[in-house]
């Protein structure tokens, strides 16, 4: 049988190595290296996509020595062993090839090149073109009128004319040409001193290697002739090593190379395990969720019937709101979607038969009965759409279900729905569960915990996007203009996906021992954070305006000073122009280059270093800091003040940091500078309401206290148990002075070391921070570990544990996977080791401050106080307290926070009060 369609033969082993070296090291969450698999697969897919081959095969080198080693034992002797992080990827590569149902060629004792040569000899001909997919020059000796070589990585196609043009000899003479040159990469000897030009000239003159050696007397150059005589045997040996063995047995029926459709289920399994998200999307596009059981409830009688049905079933209630804004403090309710899920009810898990009786646990789209309640959809002209449910009717029917303390309420990003429902008179009562938070606890390093991403990656289901359902309407209230039928399909997808994710996450939380952390900490904290967001913090708008004007004037003054110091005007915000001024005009000593290697860095580290040589870098730093403070905070804060209450309502995020610490956004109140005069003035714009004061409760050195607990270091334990100044204690030891002789600078150095050790700071990093030599910094670190030997022991043990388990935990069992702890890449491995040391400490500190917020809230409610928690910033809780409650609330907060968790050392809390944030520092 013959065909005009070409047979493609891929040099598999070559592309495995090329992929491994071409792509930076990657690994999945389990620590399995994946970059070679990914690179090889993308090359394979390029062949399939671009060429759409009917016939395709992949050839591999066989494991172990081949016949060339029998000829010449030193063959490839200079090549290192296959790296361990490549060897473990080979089985996955072969599984990917198998899943694509591609014919593979592999035989003991030969290489991929030999198999390709045999295939070319047996299958290629005038009526059957063959295309070799490779970048290996040795395979070019096979090129002829019906065999070509294509390298997809270089996008080059080599036919006989292209070969002759590149090497100045035709393909049939390449073997002799290569024999003269040899191949250092394979440790193949040739004739020393004979390069490509000389080899091409000799082969062109004599036609072959044998004819060349038979006529050496015709070589006029004496030295070249001598080399040929001396290395005649080397050249002939090289020819035997480079010659391709084309007499191998392999399938000769072209049908054996037919490429059938791939095994999509196997590919999905592999790409999911390897976390090839892009390939999942491009090669295995997810299907839509089945919508046969999505129902639009727009009749009061059907609403009553639905609520009765839901009330009679103890299953988990899944809920999602559709609104007019991303800001829950401004959003108006447009509709609500509901469904039920099996799972934990009132702190317990229903028996299996009860689950089956109510809502079958399902990994498929079956039995996904979901309902949508339209409330405030509008026609195009803005008037209410017909056939909707009045908000008052929905509130009256649904509020009791949402307030049921015996039923678990489930959502995705549930805090948003809680806020919206609360504002519309339907408070969502505990117990609560959030699939976004569940995803975060299970894998805090996951790139996204968004519902659409989780659905596509874990459920293989694509959700309708907001842009699709709104027809890319950019108005803030766009969803209100979506037809109720389309809104029902969209919103029901969300609750259906949430329910299916819960089927995955609920047992996983139990398996990883994360249930207590999930329910008792994160989910208990969620409504507290929602309350803090609703209360907000008051801002002095007048002071912000004054600061904006003042900072503008100061920025102008700094710009003038910078230009004066530079001796020329330039764009201060241009790194290139700043680099020219610093390194070309002022001749300051440059440091490292930028990432693009287009110039030298002018980042903050470099400017701080250069400040020792000239006044300009310090002025640039001051200008940058003030500019950022003005644009990020002063200007933006004014736009975020809610006109209804004069307060700013930040959003607290539980799923951002890998360590478990909270963050805040819109605005970010975690990073307002406190050490600069300008930063303190900005903090002064956050003010307590009339008749109230701020109470700031700050944990003292909580990270170091957690370190003392973990390390059980006797010196650390004793210092904290005796309430000694730990920084003073450390300073006395590393400077070898009496504690009474410790100066403020010595204490500052000790403080830097104490906290730096937690982050795995090296001598280099410490030297940069302290502006001292690396040698001096190393002396400080060595003396630190002489004093705190238990800390050194803990650091070694936690790294070994992480290497053994692949993860670390906090005291409350919060997990962080460390897949690169065993990486062959030194930089990535050392970063993972530092993370292993830091995470249990920072993570436990994060858990403690969360527990503190929970206990303080409970005790304030129990005591009937009017004080409200407003902010959590790092290790500090900030309350707004009526002046008459300051003393009892202060006592309550201090006692609650200091007794929230029992450690080997006491927790200590410092209390400060003031009328604005600046006065609580």
Notes on the protein architecture:
The chain is an alpha/beta fold. The chain has four domains: 167 residues, 5'-nuclease (Rossmann fold), CATH 3.40.50.1010; 243 residues, 2-Layer Sandwich (Nucleotidyltransferase, domain 5), CATH 3.30.420.10; 112 residues, Taq DNA Polymerase, Chain T, domain 4, CATH 1.20.1060; 142 residues, DNA polymerase, domain 1 (Orthogonal Bundle). Helices cover 49% and strands 12% of the residues. It contains 37 helices and 26 strands. The chain has a six-stranded mixed beta sheet with strand order 3-2-1-4-5-6. Strands 8-11-10-9-12-13 form a six-stranded mixed beta sheet. β16 and β17 form a beta hairpin. The longest helix is centred in the last third of the chain and has 37 residues. It is globular, with a radius of gyration of 35 Å. The N and C termini lie far apart (86 Å). About 2% of the residues have low confidence.
CATH class of the largest domain: Alpha Beta
Number of helices: 37
Mean pLDDT: 90
> Describe the biggest sheet?
6 strands, mixed
What would you say about this model in short?
The protein is an alpha/beta fold and 921 residues long. The strands form 7 sheets. A 6-stranded mixed sheet has the order 3-2-1-4-5-6. It has a 6-stranded mixed sheet with strand order 8-11-10-9-12-13. A 4-stranded antiparallel sheet has the order 16-17-15-20.
